[in-house]
Design a protein that fits this description.
Blueprint (H helix, E strand, L loop, with lengths): L6 H9 L5 H19 L2 E4 L1 H17 L10 E5 L26 H8 L3 E6 L19 E2 L2 E5 L5 H8 L5 E6 L5 H7 L2 E4 L19 E6 L2 H11 L23 E5 L6 H16 L3 E5 L4 H19 L18 H12 L2 H13 L5 H23 L4 E5 L14 H5 L6 H6 L3 E8 L5 E7 L5 H15 L1
Parallel strand pairs: 2-3, 2-6, 9-10, 9-11
Antiparallel strand pairs: 1-3, 4-5, 6-8, 7-8, 7-12, 11-13, 12-13
Helix pairs in contact: 2-3, 5-6, 7-15, 9-11, 9-12
Length: 467
């Protein structure tokens, strides 16, 4: 079955004629239609074109024609990544029926290597949320326990991998939106270094934090997909051209970032990992981030400010569903955004506009950027002495749907994940154990900027040791 093995393993099955891609894809869609009714991970499925693509690849296999690096791979994409002539809505009513006229660079590169994109996945509206409860398509359920959330904002992506619906999911990570749902659903979630993967064709939330990430069951699948989608892009000037490969680390010395706010669940997991790694010859030491308590406030100040700017284009003129019977421009803006945006998006736009206003820019936005600079300097100093940083992904496992309604409490869910985005670091969440309620719990590992490949190698090592 497609979702039960790695891409390379499935490719070997195809090469050995143990199965056909067409029959596997047909079987997969039958399973998705049966099971995803209760999970709600997909918002669009591309069944007909996926089967046609599978037939094309089967013919290539028979004829001996050259195949792409990702032939036979089945991939889902988050509903904020453009795929030409396919709906992309960011799970928002304001983009109902919108179809982009171009594909994102990541999608173009996946298709060029014979990947099959089977559908787009549910997410928090415009990537704003930590539970996938802020979607116009409804909440995504956790495949491990349907009463629990899948995490956010890429809950649909994580659920699609955890449920075995695809080999890999492509999603966006702004403050932990790949790693946290991956942790809740028990899969791997990888956020590349900022500038490693082009953001062209990703609907922007907070441009200095946004990064396309990868979710999968196997580290080797993440490495393979990263090798395809990374690299220079003429449409995105923030992409770095070189990756400092000579600076790769061997993972012999790691720092566990400890914090007084650790829950008993997180403390137990960190202590367990610390002991196991030490027992396996890895030098482990504890470290403290002096800026830790300022990370979430600073992150949200900057993110909301950038969101208020990026989402100004959804006004009923440039983009967005335009209501009927409008009398003037102000009414057009008001009615479009009132009907189109959900509560959380409105909250962040309004807060961001306030932060950037003339009287408060210095007091909030400028101070947050100063904290960000201090945090980057502190993390670089720590990474001069250690190969990797290890932290929890969250203080808790997946919570019950509807349990968290206080926005500030929800924002605090990101206290461990925003570090990677604030500093532009690569980070990966790795399932560690099951909690007392049987749900997955994960740790995350950070590396220095552009040490993505060595991080993935260490992640594989860590996964083997810890599980």
């Amino acid at each position: 079955m497609i979702g039960e093995c790695s891409i390379k393993s499935f490719q070997n099955q195809l090469l050995n004629n143990d199965t056909s891609l067409e029959s596997s894809v047909i079987q997969l869609f039958a399973e998705i239609k049966e099971k995803d009714v209760s999970i709600n991970s997909f918002v669009n499925l591309y069944e007909d074109q996926s089967i046609l693509k599978a037939q094309e690849i089967d013919q290539k296999l028979k004829s001996g024609a050259s195949l792409g690096k990702l032939f036979g791979s089945v991939i889902s994409i988050k509903d904020n990544i453009c795929y030409q002539d396919h709906p992309v809505t960011a799970s928002s009513a304001i983009l109902k029926d919108f179809k982009p006229i171009y594909s994102s660079t990541a999608v173009e590169r996946l298709l060029a290597e014979d990947a099959i994109i089977i559908g787009s996945t549910n997410c928090d509206e415009f990537g704003m949320g930590s539970s996938n409860e802020n979607s116009v398509y409804g909440t995504v359920s956790n495949p491990n326990d349907l009463s629990k959330v899948a995490g956010g904002s890429s809950g649909g992506a994580a659920a699609s991998v955890a449920a075995g619906f695809c080999h890999v999911a492509i999603a966006s990570d702004t403050g932990g939106s790949v790693r946290q749902p991956a942790a809740f659903c028990g899969v791997l979630g990888f956020k590349p270094s900022y500038g490693r993967v082009s953001r062209y064709g990703l609907l922007a939330y907070a441009s200095s934090f946004d990064q396309i990430g990868i979710l999968a069951l196997y580290p080797e699948d993440i490495s393979l997909v990263l090798s395809v989608i990374e690299g220079k892009d003429e449409f995105d000037s923030t992409v770095c051209n070189s990756y400092l490969s000579s600076l790769n680390k061997n993972g012999s010395k790691v720092a566990f970032i400890r914090h007084s706010g650790e829950s008993s669940q997180a403390k137990k997991a960190m202590d367990q990992a610390y002991k196991v790694l030490n027992d396996n010859g890895i030098i482990c030491e504890s470290a403290i981030l002096k800026q830790f308590d300022y990370m979430v406030p600073s992150y949200y100040i900057i993110a909301m400010a950038e969101a208020s700017s990026n989402l100004s284009r959804y006004d009923g003129i440039h983009y967005g569903v335009r209501p009927d019977n409008i009398n003037d421009l102000n009414e057009l803006y008001t009615e479009t955004r009132t009907a189109g945006f959900g509560t959380e998006v409105k909250r962040r736009i309004m807060t961001g506009s306030f932060i950037l206003s003339a009287g408060y820019y210095e007091a909030y936005y400028k101070k947050a950027q100063k904290v960000r600079r201090l945090l980057v300097d502190e993390v670089i100093e720590i990474l001069n002495d250690y190969d990797y940083l290890i932290m929890p992904v969250s203080n808790h496992s997946a919570f019950t749907k509807g349990e968290k309604v206080d926005p500030v409490e929800v924002y605090q869910s990101d206290k461990y994940t925003v570090l990677a985005n604030m500093c532009g670091l690569p980070a990966i969440s790795i399932p560690l154990s099951k909690t007392e309620n049987g749900l997955p719990f994960a740790l995350q590992v950070h590396a220095n900027q552009f040490q993505d490949n060595s991080l993935l190698e260490f992640g594989q090592k860590l996964k083997n040791i810890l599980q």
